[in-house]
Amino acid sequence: MQWMPDIQKKGLQLYVKRVFITDECKELIPDYLRFVKGVVDSGDLPLNVSREILQDNAIIGRIQKAVTSKILSELKKMHESEPEAYKKFFKEFGKVLKEGIHTDYTNQEKIKALAMYETMNTAPGELISLEEYVKAMPEQQKDIYFITGDSRAHIESNPALELLRSKGYDVLFMTDPIDEWIMQSMFQFDKKNFKNVAKGEFELEGEDKEAAEKIIAEAKDKFKALTEKLQKKFDSALKEVRFSTRLVDSPACLVGDEHSISPQMERLFKAMNQEMPVTKRILELNPKHPLIEKLQLMAADNAESQELEMYAQLLYDQALLAEGSPIEDSLNFSRNIAKIMLKSIK
Alpha carbon of 200 to those of 119, 244, 254: distances in Å? Predict the structure, then answer.
């Protein structure tokens, strides 16, 4: 898979003993460095070198290894000695450079150290490195938290961030289309695992974990009528309705399985005319939210009431909007909002 098709032509020209050979030697440099322009002059290749020889030649392989190492070394120097200049470079070419994390296992750690991201605690447009993120981690934080999405505006208000925000933790904002693809290969940095805050179970440490487990166990019984209603109503879209302690202020949020693809990735593949099976999501509820309490009373009283049907739909639509996903029936959503407004105005 290649990204940024506007940067496809290789920028290195090949000379042999100062004689121009070609400017289309794809073997001279890996794809993720295709933004580099320059000249390679070799004294070891024959002047009559053919395309076939270039494609399968040990000398070319050694040249690519040396060129790649030199470029990454220079980028590291710029990153350390000219941080502002490097940030400008990364904003321009970072999408391409990050491809190497997935495609160049040999240099993966070097490229990780060059990657930069916005975070929940940085100002919009401000980038930090993974090393800076790790240095700022609280002592009790074990994982590197991240979330993917279409833009900062879409993800910074995602309810899945609420608990981490309340604890003062930081979260990497990965908003490039390539980021989720890359994260399939980026398992660790500085011996710390990456954790997508919008996927899988969210576990706390120590006493917090024990308290959370107790809250969730009690909620399963207390809100059984509501969870059964929601699962039945949205069975085609939801794999599970469960409770979570990752929510603080919001009544609900949508998350994915640990290894499922995100809605953003689904939309990206569809935009590329690639068919994708629909991935069922997980609806997580906040057992401490008063709205969940009231919906449970309604479900226990009459799970088939039209009023509960409307509120259940609004709860699900609200969760979709909170994560930046489109709702399925915007007209019905607007009508339901109007009904509630009319009821509340006296």
Answer: 21, 11, 11
The pLDDT value given to residue 244: 87
Q: How confident is the model at residue 118 (pLDDT cuts 50, 70, 90)?
A: very high
Nearest to 234, CA basis, from 319, 346, 151: 319
d(CA 32, CA 37): 13
Q: How wide is the angle at C-alpha 100 spanned by C-alphas 137 and 127, nearest 5°? A: 40
Query: DSSP letter string over 115-158?
Result: -EEEETTSPTT--EEHHHHHHHS-TT--SEEEEE-S-HHHHTT-
pTM of the model: 0.86
Compute the distance between CA of residue 106 and CA of residue 319 in angstroms, rounded to an integer.
Answer: 41
pLDDT-based confidence at residue 238 (cuts at 50, 70, 90): very high
Q: Which long-range contacts (CB under 8 A, 24 or more apart) does 155-159 make?
A: 155/323, 155/324, 156/120, 157/322, 158/198, 158/253, 158/322, 158/323, 158/324, 159/246, 159/247, 159/249, 159/250, 159/252, 159/253, 159/319, 159/322, 159/323
- 224-233 and 206-222 are packed helices; what angle lies between their axes, rounded to 10 degrees? 80
Dump the DSSP string for 14-69.
EEETTEEEES--GGGS-GGGTT-EEEEEESSS-TT--HHHHHT-HHHHHHHHHHHH
| Local structure of 286: helix, strand or coil | coil
The b-or-e profile of 51-68 (16+ CB within 10 A means b, else e) is: eeebeebeebeebbeebb
